[in-house]
Amino acid sequence: MDKQERYNELAKEIYKNNNLDESQRLEFYQLHKTVSEPEDCTLFHKLFELGFVHQLKYQENIKYKFSGAEEEKQIIEFLEEKVKTDGLTRDLYELLVYLAHKNSIQTTVNSPAIPKIQNLDFSLFKTKFNYTDRRKYLLRILESFLRYYFSLYQVGNIRLLVGGGFLDLKDSPNDIDLIILMEYKAFCDSGKISNLKQWISQQKSSSDIKPPLDIMKLPTDNDLSSFLAYQQLTMIGNDVSEKLTHKIKNNIYSGRDIYKIKINE
To answer: What is the β-pairing status of strands 258-264 and 117-119?
Structure first.
């Protein structure tokens, strides 16, 4: 079997969503560089975007990592080449900067700042950010959400990371961006998270552009070596100049702090 035939065989398995082991994936990466008819769609959309990114975001084991540093460096190399030609989707851009962060590699694209997390008392948080009617309205929704959360989960306290545009000086932010830090059992309870999101969607008024709260979740350890923690913390801890979803060749970030708040029932 020649190189092109072997490459086509591996590409077919990827396209059928069949799992390849690490040695097969490394073989595929090497062949992709050398065969005369490489399939970029298979590599970028089936293997990276629909395969690894999906697993990193959604599978229960949020500690999922690639098989090793060699594979991660191969992926960085491919993504950097694609930046120069077509640009990347948002997911692939996030994958590139995450892998570069994890492997301490300097990339050709800008990476988001790792946000500083500051502890803040909830009463002080409300006093600091309630200086317009819109902000007071969002804070009232947040307090109602907390009451619903306590009744749903039957817990005595909640820990939140708050970031996003609500922390900027704008008078009329669209929403409050929250990450709920949860024990792992609660983190895995998708039913209750669906209930929370449904409750939030019901609070959207006719004048709201989007629901008043934007919630995400992380396990309490929120280890930045996991893709999920890196993605969420840098998302609410940075502002991006252009919120493109495709053909991204670079992003310009401005960092912002995140507040960590513990609230008792």
So the answer is: parallel
